[in-house]
Amino acid sequence: MKSVFVTVGTTSFDDLIACVSSHDCLQIIESLGYSRLILQIGRGTVAPEPFRTESFALDVYRYKDSVKEDLRKADLVISHAGAGTCLECLEKGKPLVVVVNEQLMNNHQLELAKQLHKEGHLFYCTCSTLPGLLQSMDLSTLKCYPPGQPEKFSAFLDKVVGLQK
Amino acid sequence: MVYLLMLAAGAGAVAVVLVLRLWMVLRTQDVSSRQSVSLLVVAGSGGHTTEILRLLEYLSSAYSPRHYVIADTDKMSTNKINGFELYQAERKPSNRATEYYIHRIPRSREVRQSWLSAVFTTLRSMLVSFPLTFRLKPDVVLCNGPGTCVPICLSALLLGILGIKKVIIVYVESICRVETLSMSGKILFHLSDYFIVQWPTLKEKYPKSVYLGRIV
């Protein structure tokens, strides 16, 4: 049973939730072979009704202590451009579609999504282009993402604070 | 009139002394060797918290106690931090002896809040941040750019200016920032001791910054 996990992070992203839970989008998702859609909607005002049919289930929640479990189980993640979720997905090797929130101040999150998209690690779109992208994308074209190196940071910090080994 | 002039001269003198002190504090490189480091981590909220916890993952148990500061409107960070600390203690037995605390301060800037009103909320945060920073007197302040980190870093600087303690301020610009600095980054670029960026484009634009590659 393949599933799609949609996450908006700490705040809200009503446009994304409205788009992905629309009739058209649900049909596209089902036609791609997914039988479950999980929405993490944060403090958004758009809260679709969960439902369950024989072939498809929609689950909706606001927050969980950790979305790790849902990320782990998902076969496809659709996310806001938050760095945390992006990096977590890429490290777990989850196919990721980042949807950019055009209404956010300065929209600086675009920078990261754009860069990671440029390097071929994820798909990236806006709410209006999401349905088209879902239909046309080829998940096998995504490049895997090498892990960051926090150990370099700890070595640097040890040095500058004068920590004795 | 004479009083006014004297008052102005007095204020000017104080300002010059403060600026000089600030300059001295920023130039001081405190590398006295030490056995343990008291760390104040500004976790902020959301992605900032996730990112800064990744930075902490490889720090040795000498970084104790660890004081986390989070925004009071933040619902998720407490659980993330507790989960992280639990994981660290399970992973490395030496981490079990280390201590950590979580402190809450008013958020400086909500998403979509205007910059002008942000100035006032930052001042309000200062009223909480300074007593907190004064009480904790950390060796190092580590932050990665949520609005909450500005009042904390200013407080840490103030400790230096007042001659109470030289706090090393380490700023890590979020991995989100590929081409431009965040507002906090722009403010703290000149006020931090070490300013770390994670993309080569930023290192080119800000040669004084430190580039260690992608560290989260």
Describe the model:
Chain B: The chain crosses the membrane at residues 6-26, 114-133, 145-164. Chain B: It is a single-pass membrane protein. Chain B: It comes from Otolemur garnettii. Chain B: Keywords: Endoplasmic reticulum, Membrane, Transmembrane, Transmembrane helix. Chain B: InterPro entries: Oligosacch_biosynth_Alg14. Chain A has 165 residues and is an alpha/beta fold. Chain A has a single domain, classed as Glycogen Phosphorylase B (Rossmann fold, 3-Layer(aba) Sandwich), CATH 3.40.50. In chain A, 36% of the residues lie in helices and 19% in strands. Chain A has 7 helices and 7 strands, in the order E-H-H-E-E-E-H-E-H-E-H-E-H-H. Chain A has helices spanning 14-20, 23-31, 68-73, 83-91, 109-118, 130-136, 150-161; strands at 2-7, 34-40, 51-52, 57-61, 76-79, 96-99, 123-125. In chain A, strand 6 (96-99), helix 5 (109-118) and strand 7 (123-125) form a beta-alpha-beta unit. Chain A starts with a strand and ends with a helix. With 216 residues, chain B is an alpha/beta fold. In chain B, 46% of the residues lie in helices and 18% in strands. In chain B, strands 3-2-1-4-5-6-7 form a 7-stranded parallel β-sheet, sandwiched between helices. Chain B has a single domain (36-211), classed as Glycogen Phosphorylase B (Rossmann fold), CATH 3.40.50. Chain B is globular, with a radius of gyration of 18 Å. The interface between A and B is large, with 36 and 52 residues.
What's the structural domain tally of chain A? 1
CATH level 4 superfamily of chain A: Glycogen Phosphorylase B
Sketch the topology of chain A as an H/E string, one letter per element: EHHEEEHEHEHEHH
Please tell me the CATH architecture of chain B by its name.
Answer: 3-Layer(aba) Sandwich
Shape of chain A: elongated
Mass-distribution shape of chain B = globular
Main β-sheet, spatial strand arrangement of chain B: 3-2-1-4-5-6-7
Poorly predicted spans of chain A: none
What fraction of residues of chain A sit in β-strands?
15-25%
| Helix content range of chain A | 25-40%
* Quaternary: heterodimer
CATH superfamily placement of chain B: Glycogen Phosphorylase B
Biggest pleated-sheet summary of chain A? 7 strands, mixed
- Please tell me the total number of domains of chain B: 1
CATH class of chain A equals Alpha Beta
